[in-house]
Amino acid sequence: MNPFRYERASDASNAIALLAQAPNGAYLGGGTNLIDHMKLGVRHPDLLVDISRLPYDHIEVLADGSVRIGAMVRNSDLAADRTIRARYPLVSQALLAGASGQLRNLATTGGNLLQRTRCVYFQDISKPCNKREPGSGCSARDGYHRDLAILGTSQDCIATHPSDMAVALVALDALVRMQGPRGERTIPLIDLYRLPGDEPQRDTVITHGELITAIDLPPLPYAATHSRYRKVRDRASYAFALVSVAAALDFADGVIRDVRIAFGGIAPMPWRAKKAEAALRGKPASEELFRQAADAELADAQPLPGNAFKIPLTRNTMTRMLLDLVEERNQP
Ligand SMILES: Cc1cc2nc3c(=O)[nH]c(=O)nc-3n(C[C@H](O)[C@H](O)[C@H](O)COP(=O)(O)OP(=O)(O)OC[C@H]3O[C@@H](n4cnc5c(N)ncnc54)[C@H](O)[C@@H]3O)c2cc1C
Ligand code: SF4
């Protein structure tokens, strides 16, 4: 590991000012992703600004009914929170499907959103990787790409975004609040992320020194309480998603009134399935309709030989989950 300086920020302004003076510095949340990358030689920040003790560690219900999650709230605390479990169960399920108990105790909400891809070549500095070293090439296209993306890829990169929590939050239209050298801004979480295009080194639109301070979850009384996160992976725990689906369903008299769907494990960012949602809204629920809606979303998929299995796996996972949600709704 390269030498680096460590500073503990006293407040947000102090954190932002410290990083503004260090173009190669980084914020340190729980460190469960960043420190691993420093040990592997993937990243070499010369300054770590520890933000983990900043007072953004609360979950509060706002006057308009939305819920604000501080960026330093630990993943374990968020998953266990009563309001989150009651009003947004898919967020809790997504968190508990990720990492391990020990990791979740350390990992922060802000850090979770900005964790980087698990593509094996990104983490192996002996191999070319456009995301780690722009212009060096992509080892995955002709190499091991079983875990990688089928939607939203580019010639330069086919990596997947790894966060489970972010998939659930994107399905719920979460907003992300940031503070930086040029002031504050709040944007839809989905707009934080970007597709690789010809700049796969940029996962997000966040600029140097911007600090994520909170996530806002809008009130969604009907759909969000009736929601699920399902993750398909190689092991029952401690494994990243091959495919995951977050869904919230508003269903009455056999008809889908509203639906939110997002996919994980198949794209470079949490993938909101807008085409599938449009194909479902206002229609009578049926297995056939769910399959057609999944196919509408997956029509643009560009799989490689090693990951083509993700197309039927995504279709089946989404269909099964929507059938389960309808069945649950029909129970007295
Ligand atoms: C073995 C293992 C298995 C895992 N399995 C899963 C899994 O199945 N599913 C899953 O979703 N995750 C999984 N994870 C990843 C884990 O969830 C992330 O490592 C964790 O959420 C990152 O949070 P952190 O606070 O530790 O981030 P850090 O490592 O501290 O930071 C990550 C990045 O975010 C930046 N950052 C942190 N906080 C902020 C902020 N507030 N504002 C701006 N920038 C910030 C840092 O500078 C850094 O670039 C796994 C990790 C490991 C090690
Ligand atoms: S898929 Fe992306 S992260 Fe993986 S080797 Fe190719 S460029 Fe690197």
UniProtKB/TrEMBL annotation:
Transmembrane segments: none annotated. Gene3D superfamilies: 3.30.465.10, CO dehydrogenase flavoprotein, C-terminal domain, Uridine Diphospho-n-acetylenolpyruvylglucosamine Reductase, domain 2. It comes from the Bacteria. The keyword Oxidoreductase applies. Pfam families: CO_deh_flav_C, FAD_binding_5. Residues 1-222 form the FAD-binding PCMH-type domain. SUPFAM superfamilies: CO dehydrogenase flavoprotein C-terminal domain-like (SSF55447), FAD-binding/transporter-associated domain-like (SSF56176). Keywords: Oxidoreductase. This is FAD-binding molybdopterin dehydrogenase. It comes from Ktedonobacter robiniae. The lineage of its organism: Bacteria, Bacillati, Chloroflexota, Ktedonobacteria, Ktedonobacterales.
